[in-house]
Amino acid sequence: MSDTGRNPDNPTPTREELSARLERAVEIAESCGKTASRYFGTALDVELKDDASPVTVADRETEEAVKKALHATFPGEPVTGEESGSETAGGSRWRWIVDPIDGTRAFVAGVPLYTVLIAAMYDGSPIIGVIHSPETGETVAAADGQGCYLDGVRTAIRDCTRLAEAVINVTDFADFARRCPTLSRNLIPAVSAARGWGDGYGYLLLAAGRTDAMLDPIMNPWDVAPLIPIVEQAGGVITALDGRSTGPLPKSAVAAGEVLHGAILALS
């Protein structure tokens, strides 16, 4: 067996391989998060990409650090990064997905709730996910069949089943209202509280049992891939806002416990 747990006679990931890969992904996220943190709170030139989202030197350097570390540990396995795009797959069944700074708007505004996101996909499905918050020092991580962990301690979504008792998070309320007017109009008055602790950090809060639902009206692969194993292994459900998904990576997201997830979708 290799140092990443791979049994060369078995082409599917073993539990040992998943554990080894998850451990290394956590190490990389936490180490490379220091690259982003060095820039946090400093004056940065902010560029706008074609989709009008911001990018800085911190995004690019952090992504390069993550990619370099992944390639050193898992040679031949392609990486898709938000800033650099997708590498050619070759013959590998694995692909890594990286969002070096999820929440760049928060980052450049000096809000310490940005995160580093890393996912591993196997045969096109995300099976390992990591959310690391450099400024709070927290990491949530999960691999298929192995549970979800906050800083090494097993964690789970809290058991809230009633909308009237639920605390929900939305990354961008204005965008949510524009893209999902019916759901927004019905949901916000129905819940106990609606907070704006969004982006990847909102899903960390969900998995840690500190909030009850997280909604995003638009998602990219690097945004959502790490979240799927984390939410599912924490005992929750994550789908697109219409309750479905186009392929393994939905283009929007609602994540919550099963009962609350269904109650939210019923308001659409």
Low-confidence sequence ranges: 1-10
Average pLDDT, all residues: 93
The name of the CATH superfamily of the largest domain reads Fructose-1,6-Bisphosphatase, subunit A, domain 1
Q: What would you say the CATH architecture of the largest domain is?
A: 2-Layer Sandwich
Helix count from the secondary structure assignment? 9
**What is the element string, with H for helices and E for strands?**
HEEHEEEHEEEEEEHHEHEHHEEH
CATH class of the largest domain: Alpha Beta
Largest sheet: 8 strands, mixed
The total of beta strands comes to: 15
Description:
The chain has 268 residues and is an alpha+beta fold. It has two domains: 15-155, Fructose-1,6-Bisphosphatase, Chain A, domain 1; 163-265, D-Maltodextrin-Binding Protein, domain 2 (3-Layer(aba) Sandwich), CATH 3.40.190. It is built from nine helices and 15 strands. The chain has helices spanning 15-39, 57-73, 104-108, 173-179, 181-187, 199-207, 221-224, 227-233, 258-265, and strands spanning 47-48, 54-55, 79-81, 85-86, 94-102, 115-122, 125-133, 138-143, 148-150, 153-155, 167-170, 193-195, 213-216, 237-239, 253-256. It has an eight-stranded mixed sheet with strand order 4-3-5-6-7-8-9-10, sandwiched between helices. The chain has a five-stranded mixed sheet with strand order 12-11-13-15-14, with helices on both faces. Helix 1 (15-39) runs antiparallel to helix 2 and helix 4 (173-179) packs across helix 5. It starts with 14 loop residues before the first helix and ends with a helix.
